[in-house]
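Notes from hallway chat w/ T.B., transcribed later so I don't forget. T.B. wanted the structure written out for a chain they're using in a teaching module, and asked if we could keep both sequence and structure tokens in one place. Agreed to drop them here.
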Amino acid sequence: MPEQITDWLLAHSTELAGAVLSLFYICFSIRQNILTWITGLLASLFYIVVFFEAKFYADMGLQGYYVFISIYGWYFWMKGSVKNEGKQAKVSRLSVKLIPKLLVATLGIYAVILFILLKYTDSPVPFMDSTTTALSIVATWMLARKIIEHWLIWVFVDLFSAGLYIYKSLWPTAVLFVVYTIMAVLGYYEWRKSLKGNAG
């Protein structure tokens, strides 16, 4: 039995490393800690390998995007926007003007990813993979900009993704995404407190 456990751990070491780092990532993001972006970047590098082996090509590409957005998020959280005159960014709400832009962006990203998956890959779940990837790209940009509603998108994406990973027998990742769902709810309420503090 111990040998079987050791063999399983070794066989899934990359996935487990990504899962552990991802838990740190979400904990740091709830606390609005700058380490969010360092742990997120490292987790993404591990998951590029995991998703390539599982043939989740859209998710693999998403991890490459996460590497880029981690650098952007780190900069924005530290420096803030031009309006903030270099002060650290604060939690904000999604503006009415931004909603149609994000909807168009989500649909556009979905269409492009779906086309690539259907035409150029052997993805077993192209429609679902495209959906979670498009929403994740938009939600992560919203996280980088400290827009509180990104947590609501993650609640849906994390639950949906957990089902996909169960389908592909990526059990550590499936469990991680169930935990993610719970933590996304907690994150929303924590950021809401911060938002109220900003208004006060």
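Follow-up for T.B.: The chain has a mean pLDDT of 87. Might be a good example for the class.
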